[in-house]
Amino acid sequence: MELPIETLIFLVTVAFMAGGIDAMAGGGGLLTIPALMAAGVPPVSALATNKLQSSAGTASAFVAFWRAGHIDLRRFAWPVIAAIIGSGAGAVAVQQVDPSFLSGIVPLLLILMCIYFIASPKMGAADRRARISNLGLTLLIGAIGFYDGFFGPGTGSFLTTALVALAGLGLLRAIANAKLLNLATNLAGLVALIAGGQMLWLLGFSMAAANVAGNQVGARLAIRYGGAGVRPLLVIMSAALTIKLLSDPANPIWHIL
């Protein structure tokens, strides 16, 4: 699939911004998936290409948090396994869905993600007592992994929220370990989507380079300042891109309504 140079520049810029936002608070896919679809990329290929660029960016942020000593591999070993299994299953499932169904449902899912970001409570910085067993957390991470493989936007934020609210982690440690879990879901989903032949390689690698750069900037800002202040920008931009998708008269949702 060939894209005009101005469209490629737009997508690479969005990938950079999404990387920074993803490293700080999660939810970068709220920008990249609607941007890819608005550029005319088919829904499943958009999910696959987004998974490639987000995998590279998440890996970059993971390394930054790992070097800073904020990752707890031993504690989250089983949740990582559940994340891999769940995401792989979700990525296989999404390739069995009618693309027109995805084109119609994606804007609705994005609207729900915006509502989540607006309504979700502020998260504290200090560690607290865990409110869920490791088995319960593992099952929850597996379910979030399935969602990430099937769709994806907001996964980083869901993981961060779960680690703060249920696992008792402070915000910075939750953001860091969410990168570990999100990397597992990204890689599992990526392998399944590549196997399905859905990848736009050149576009994916171009966006991946930009996403890595954005994640490095975002990870350093998160380590220094935390993830505050990102949500309003994320909601505004994702809402604008969702409106762009809904403004297309050919969107299947208008035929349903």
TrEMBL record:
Keywords: Cell membrane, Membrane, Transmembrane, Transmembrane helix, Transport
GO cellular component, one term: plasma membrane
Organism: Altericroceibacterium indicum
Superkingdom of this protein's organism: Bacteria
Location of the protein in the cell: Cell membrane
Name of the protein in question: Probable membrane transporter protein
Source organism phylogeny: Bacteria, Pseudomonadati, Pseudomonadota, Alphaproteobacteria, Sphingomonadales
Record-linked PANTHER family: MEMBRANE TRANSPORTER PROTEIN YFCA-RELATED (PTHR30269:SF0), TRANSMEMBRANE PROTEIN YFCA (PTHR30269)
Spans through the membrane: 7-32, 52-69, 76-94, 100-119, 131-150, 156-175, 187-210
InterPro entries hit by this protein: TM_pro_TauE-like, TSUP
UniProt membrane topology term: Multi-pass membrane protein
Family (UniProt): Belongs to the 4-toluene sulfonate uptake permease (TSUP) (TC 2.A.102) family.
Pfam families assigned to the protein according to its UniProt record, in alphabetical order: TauE
